[in-house]
Amino acid sequence: MTPQSGLIVVAPIRTGQTKSLRALLLSMNRRPGEADPANELVPFGDFLPLHFARLVILEDKTAQDLAAFSVPAQPYPDYLAFSVDFDGEASAFRAQLVVRARSGLRRIFSHCAGFDESTDLDRWMSEHLQPIATLYVNWIGRTVASIRENAALYEFLLAEMAGPPSHPPPGSSRTVAENLRLRVAAAVRSGRLTLTPEAPTPLGWRLANITHLVGIPLLLLVLTPFLIVIAPFFLIALRHREKIDPEIAPRVTSEEAAPLARIEDGQLTNQFSAIGHLKPGALRRWTLVFVLFLVGYTTRHLYKRGRLARVSTIKFARWVFLDDRRRLFFASNYDGSLDSYMDDFINKVAFGLNGVFSNGAGYPNTRWLVLDGAKDEQKFKYFIRRHELPTEVWYDANPNISAINLRRNELIRAGIENGLNTDAAAQAWLDLL
Amino acid sequence: MNAPDYHDVQGLVRFGYGKLTEATYWLLRVRDRPAAARWLLKVPVNNAAKSDDAPETAVQVALTLGGLKALGTDPGITAGFSNEFLEGMAGSPNRSQRLGDVGVNDPSLWQWGYGPTMPDLLVLVFARPGKMGGWLQTLQDADWQEGFAVVKVLETSNLFGAEPFGFKDGVSQPDVAWEDAPATGRDALAYRNRSALGEYVLGYSNEYGKFTDRPLTPGKAGEQRDLGRNGSYLVFRQLEQDVQGFWRYLGGQTGAVPAAARELAAKLVGRKTDGTPLVGGGGASQNAFGYESDPIGAKCPVGAHVRRANPRNADLVARPAWWSRLWSTLGLRAGTYNDDVMASVRFHRLLRRGREYGPPLTPEQALAATSADQAERGIHFICLNANLSRQFEFVQGSWIMNGQFDGLPGETDPLLGNRGRAQACPFSQFFTVRRGAGEPGRIRGLPQFVTMRGGAYFFLPGIATLRYLAGGPDCDPCLDAEGRSARLAP
């Protein structure tokens, strides 16, 4: 199994260069909201392990929100964020990027402070890597190569089952399934289909993962007495703040949302990028650090098989702290429209959303960190939309297949590879097709 | 609970005016504002109060953004309407993409509702048989003549409860809780047909226990007045149906055996022509069933029209024990790969009020026809909802036109679907029938049977608001025509 990794490079843009950088980035698109896989600057399509990539200018229009907390607005510069999700080791992917997109990346990063002709690209990128507080991967171990092989397998089977609804083929479920399996086997032999066996899981990753799996609960166990002692104080302080923290969630007008809408819904999968300030003060900062740490643990060990709690439409997502944990950047790749994505969140995981985003300035009021909040549907949607950024460049290696159908294809392949020994198993497999 | 103000809600929200079998829909532009305003101030709009017997005639009035502007509505007030209404049904390419209004459904090809054919007003006129002529004469007085220019008149026809393909229509409607709001704020563990009033009428509590955003304006004493109260957003889509093409195609698939064609048609629709659902079925109610017993769609295909339009699922799979419920909530319950994919239905309901148009053509006639029938027929689809984005646009975009609905391989709604490059659907011409035995059957190259001919988002205001909008700022929004009903924002 090949685990997935993520990288994000964040760097301040030179004063006055935001506009020209944006123009350069937009030149990488073939349609609004859709990067050209063969664009000259970073030919994303050439990077086989790459699932998603985005380049987005972090221009925070909500900086004034802190005034509502009687805290002066921090004049942060605009940042450029370059974010990628891919199969395998981060260092190997970065090396590949530096080799194959050197001149394009240099042109892009030359708009950033501290980057000039003499800068070493690889070193500069590693210096500007931002730690990812929490990375969510829909299915740990699902590679781009396997996605494509499985999609081809399903296409093949669709073509093999050309029968109309009114004429079921004769034979038991096992016979019918076995027949299809044989045809797949023949196609594999003739080279029409490729079904590469799964690569072994890297030993280092497995060790680190097991250590993390066991170590974190142990650490929490050790910290328990301390957490118990501070819990009442924390809850009292939290509840007090929750009652007085201002909500800042005015409706986003059509004009304001137009740059976001323009790049949405061209494909099944959509992107989402957002930035916001944390509520001022240590309480919220450390609450969020702790919550994201917990979420990160669950996404690594628990929610790694297709579902983030009950939400099964998110392919990759990440939370990244900026500016000494005073701001948060969130990016995700999800199936369906933004509204359906938010409905999913509100109806299925409002508690989780609240736990994270209620630490953001202006979020709809919560109770006890996880209650209410997003359940104020429209206010929540406005809050989210208001913090959203128009992603300048977005690349999706497999744009027209939903996360659910990725899983379906894997189950189909598993049936091919593992055999279908009972009629019930064969029928369950046939019903996937 | 704030009691519904039946005398202020337009009757269409509560009644379908089924006994008033004649109906004509007038799409109008305001030509002369004072005359139009005079007409709107006096038009006897029917309200939602029950009377002993159905009226002889009825009239209802809805407006587009253009209509609000033409009446001189303050921009501060219009800005309070929802973005979807302000942008319009054909307002942006990404909305058109989501709604399936691309290719042959593209707004630029519509007969009305795009550019110069965008109406300001929709006047729905209903009458009992034989009464329409006189009723129109009464309504279309000198002020009407002076005030309005007609964009298009949409006639309807009475197909006696069937839609043009021949299926019983309007079987599934939400049961609106006018008086007693259902419990909100907790997960609904079972699908229920009862639905909060605020899902359809602004100014009342919705399924989240909240008030959907609506235009508010300061009254004379500076207090907040609710201009949305008792109003609803009305979606109008004129959908032309190729009835002959539909039955001929199915005939071709089934060896021209009418009974087999009907059976396949029932699979596409999810009901038989008489309305009997393919799951649960019989009994007095054709609307009390769910799909839990048929997860793979062996009885009713997952992609069947009525299953897409209303998947009938709850917020959460019901579990008796609290810890089991917690486990489900956290997404840790072992299940099948597509558990929980479907959104909870109660936030995505529509109140349908459409009518058919064009001459009738029975399935048998369509199957037997030897020459192409040129008559235009279809449905004037009308639905009411409080939140266009969460209700109509969600149902249309995430369910009807979604090429990968519930894990399907690439097919849009078998009746309404756009077979072109619909959203995320490179091959949208499939229809999958799983049988629970053997491999699934699959139609390939399913033609498009329904074409979008025109449409718009309207606002169906409360009657006092309608008068206020017509009367301009001098009119107090808190009072209706009879001077009652203070309408403070809750």
Structural summary, described in words:
The complex is a heterodimer of chains A (433) and B (490). By secondary structure, chain A is of the alpha+beta class. Helices cover 45% and strands 16% of the residues of chain A. Chain A has a four-stranded antiparallel beta sheet with strand order 1-5-4-12, with helices on one face. In chain A, a hairpin with a 2-residue loop joins strand 2 and strand 3. In chain B, 22% of the residues lie in helices and 17% in strands. In chain B, helix 1 (33-42) runs antiparallel to helix 14 and helix 8 packs across helix 9 (258-269). Chain B has 490 residues and is of the alpha+beta class. In chain B, the strands form five sheets. In chain B, strands 9, 10, 11, 12 and 15 form a five-stranded antiparallel beta sheet that branches. A four-stranded antiparallel beta sheet of chain B has the order 2-3-1-4. Chain B has a two-stranded parallel sheet with strand order 5-6. Chain B has helices spanning 33-42, 65-70, 75-78, 83-87, 93-99, 132-139, 142-147, 243-253, 258-269, 305-309, 322-329, 363-368, 392-400, 463-471, and strands spanning 22-30, 57-63, 121-127, 148-155, 175-177, 194-196, 216-218, 224-226, 232-241, 351-352, 355-357, 378-385, 431-433, 441-443, 450-460. Chain B has 14 helices and 15 strands. The interface between A and B is large, with 68 and 65 residues.
Features of the shown structure:
heterodimer, A: 433 residues, alpha+beta, 4-stranded antiparallel beta sheet, 12 strands, 45% helix, 16% strand, B: 490 residues, 5-stranded antiparallel beta sheet, 17% strand
Q: Can you count the helices of chain B? A: 14
List unreliable stretches of 5+ residues of chain B: 478-486
Biggest sheet strand line-up of chain A: 1-5-4-12
For the terminal residues of chain B, how far apart are their CA atoms? Answer: 10 Å
Percentage of residues in DSSP E strands of chain B: 15-25%
Structural class of chain A: alpha+beta
The secondary-structure element order of chain A is: EHEEEEHHHEHHHHEHEEHEEHEHH
CA-atom Rg of chain A in angstroms = 24 Å
Mean pLDDT of chain A, as a whole number?
93
